[in-house]
Amino acid sequence: IASLLFHGGLHYGIDFAGGTLVQVKFSQPTTPDDIRNALKGLDLGSSTIQQFEDASGGEFLIRVEKSKSDLVGLSDEIKATLDKVYGADHVDIRRVEMVGPKVGEDLRRKGFMAIIYALVGILIYVTFRFEFKFALGAVVALFHDVIITVGIFSLLDKEFSLSILAALLAIVGYSLNDTIVVYDRIRENLRKPGKRSYEELINTSINETLNRTILTSVTTILVLVSLFFLGGGVIHDFAFALMIGVIVGTYSSIFIASPIVIGMKGIKSFQGKRSRMST
Question: What is the pTM for the complete model shown?
């Protein structure tokens, strides 16, 4: 939260801020710095150039975060300038995407509302399947996972795009699954006869599911590390967001969701004792 408030907030990508994305294929070797120097005369403002792994020449994404009334004209200017520097036969425009500022703002609003709706839906569903104290613990843990992931992206000045929003929703689903596994074991142990305290019962339930939680998380992280290093620049940040989410989600399922259930149980017991004393 501090990184969002004091570090300048999120660095929104073209999907949310508006602008133009041009994917260019070169038949001869070049570098992002060379392309940036070639386009220097266009005054593109805030722009990034990202390279794909490609053996023959190179393929690049040119992202221009600039509000212009003629976005189509902007892509044509980029094509004409690159043709002049590299030659028209050596430049191939593979893809052009344009998002206006108003469309980007609408996508940003709908994206964050999707996360809110997901959390509210989870609160209702878990309350129905378990109890409200379990639902509250799950939602607080999920909110924690989302905030930590978004905060790290803000702190590192990484681009926040639709793919990262999709990663956040995937993190919510993954973390919820971990939490539900623990909750289900707690519910099973509550039905068993015995005189263990509530805290001991939850601690036992966490320990019984700990191996499963850790092994699942490690397996998932190994896959995400492979995507991070071998998947190319397009899904680099997506894999990075998922790695953060899996690590933080594993932590929150054990150390946040279940302790909140204990805390809610303690509050309920305290209120019951207080009402009996008053009568």
Answer: 0.78
